[in-house]
Design goal:
- With about 500 residues, this protein is mainly α.
- It folds into two domains: about 40-235, no CATH class; about 265-500, no CATH class.
- Helix content is about 85%, strand content about 0%.
- The chain has helices spanning about 5-70, 75-90, 95-130, 135-140, 145-160, 165-190, 195-215, 225-230, 235-265, 265-280, 290-300, 305-340, 350-375, 380-430, 440-460, 465-490, 490-500.
- Helix 2 runs antiparallel to helix 3, helix 13 (about 350-375) runs antiparallel to helix 15 (about 440-460) and helix 15 runs antiparallel to helix 16 (about 465-490).
- The longest helix is centred in the first third of the chain and has 69 residues, at about 5-70.
Length: about 500
């Protein structure tokens, strides 16, 4: 390779790192705003409903996501790829509008199917979850959510496929804000019995917001009784089958975990587990928010070349680890304060569990970018197999850990499951797709893992001096390492200097 070609290759790499950081920052920033709104909502929910209310909200949401995953045939995922191909290759507005109609037809049909199934099995869900039929009416009331979730998935798929990412970001913020405005008055006036109604109304509001923005891009049209629309959508459905079955595995595992904790402990323990999970996992997942919208299309384009494929995956892993490592240490350090600010004194028991679970997110940063390889290669069977193995592992490990060590045991089990998932994906995909870690980054990953582990260990000690000293030192070292590499691999440092000069 000549020096000129090397320089071009390096420039392409640098631009690509900036691209990854840009879209991770865009969607991470949006997620940060929606998270702040969600924090206010969670704080009010904690004060108004307590751990029991938190548990019911989580269980109801989990049930509806499981039904949605089971009935939407992966339209919300696979439609993005098909519409993006039309938008990139043909730029045929009429064809894009026609295929959008096909997507909406399938979304409407699957949503109606999900609604019917929810109504039919609501007594069974109540009995399996709570050992009684007391919540049958609440679950039946949630049935319209199956329709709104399916339609929302279709609308967002259209906007993502057309690369209307700013609209997607704005929709996320407005939907979260509408949920806050709708839910809190109902929780205040109706208590636990207002949860189902609040969830339905907030999902309707979110759908209306999405329709408002998507209709401006592609006018809404569907052909519910058109056989041709269903036939044209079959390739989209075939592509989404693997993704949807994997989603069903995941949602089923989450449902089983919460149902087992109810049977082994109490509804309040489910609320504490979920609050700990939210603090350790959901609030730090902003780093992964750009995966589907930006990373997956890039990986799909790079899959034909093993070196390019490996570079793309390692690049995404590197950015994820660079961003998430200091954040995780900060979360560990501030966890006692976070639970007081976000929830209430009733949730203090979730702090050790959340601290122990933070290692899960570090391992997730190493495994999630590689997990998309199977989807990029169109290998739905491999994707389903790895997801099934992981979901069976976690569905068994967390209840057993709860029996062994209570809530703190579930946090340890989550971290062990994250490590297991990482080893599983990288061992299988190494032989299947010839993927391998970048050797130059392995020492960096290991060092960040040691820093995070030290922060977790110190935070579980009773001595505040040890916790403050170790967490402060590890946070400074981790932040300096990440900033140094980001400054070397991207133009971030020069852009910041230019801002100050101006």
């Amino acid at each position: 390779m000549t020096d000129e070609k090397k320089n071009i290759y390096i420039e392409e790499e640098d631009a690509s790192y900036d691209h990854v950081l840009k879209y991770t920052g865009l969607f991470g920033g949006v997620q940060g705003i929606t998270m702040l709104i969600g924090l206010v909502r969670n704080k009010l929910v904690a004060l108004l409903l307590g751990p029991e209310g938190f548990a019911l909200i989580n269980i109801f949401n989990n049930v509806m996501k499981l039904i949605n995953q089971s009935t939407n045939f992966g339209v919300s995922f696979s439609a993005v790829k098909h519409i993006a191909e039309l938008n990139n290759d043909e730029h045929d507005t009429a064809e894009i509008h026609h295929y959008s109609s096909v997507v909406r037809t399938w979304s409407l049909a699957t949503g109606l199917l999900g609604t019917l199934i929810t109504l039919v099995i609501s007594p069974l869900i109540s009995w399996l979850t709570f050992d009684n039929y007391d919540y049958t009416c609440d679950i039946a009331l949630l049935a319209p959510m199956a329709l709104t979730l399916a339609l929302s998935g279709g609308e967002l798929a259209i906007l993502k496929g057309l690369k209307c990412l700013k609209r997607v970001a704005l929709i996320s913020i407005l939907a979260t804000l509408s949920t806050l405005v709708i839910c809190i008055p109902l929780y205040w006036s109706m208590g636990l019995r207002g949860i189902a109604l609040a969830l339905v109304l907030s999902s309707v509001a979110a759908l209306l917001i999405q329709l408002y923005f998507s209709h401006k891009v592609v006018p809404w049209h569907t052909s519910l009784f058109s056989k041709q629309s269903y036939l044209e959508g079959m390739p989209m459905i075939k592509l989404g089958i693997g993704y949807i079955i994997a989603g069903i595995f995941g949602q089923s595992a989450e449902y089983i975990i919460r149902a087992m904790i109810i049977h082994l402990g109490s509804l309040a323990d489910v609320g504490l587990y979920n609050s700990g999970y939210m603090m350790a996992v959901a609030y730090t997942s902003v780093v992964f928010i750009a995966m589907e919208a930006d990373y997956f299309p890039r990986l799909s384009a790079a899959k034909c070349s093993v070196p390019r494929q490996n570079f793309t995956v390692n690049q995404q892993i590197e950015v994820c680890v660079l961003l998430i490592s200091p954040c995780l240490i900060l979360f560990v350090f501030a966890m006692p304060l976070i639970v007081q600010v976000l929830y209430s004194d009733k949730f203090v028991e979730a702090v050790p569990m959340a601290i122990c679970a933070t290692l899960y997110m570090f391992f997730r940063a190493l495994s999630l970018p590689a997990a998309y390889l199977a989807l990029a290669h169109g290998d739905s069977k491999m994707y389903m197999a790895t997801e099934l193995i992981y979901d069976v592992f976690i569905a068994i490990a967390i209840p057993l850990a709860y029996i062994w060590g209570g809530l703190i045991g579930t946090g340890i089990a989550l971290s062990v499951a994250g490590c297991f998932d990482m080893l599983l994906i990288h061992s299988i995909y190494r032989s299947k797709y010839k993927f391998c870690f970048s050797c130059r980054l392995l020492r960096f990953y290991f060092f960040q893992l040691v820093l995070l582990s030290a922060a977790v260990w110190s935070s579980l000690q009773g001595d505040c001096t040890i916790r403050w000293t170790v967490c402060t030192i590890t946070l400074l070292i981790s932040s300096c390492l990440s900033l140094r590499i980001l400054g070397r691999e991207t133009t971030l440092a020069s852009k910041i200097k230019d801002k100050f000069r101006k």
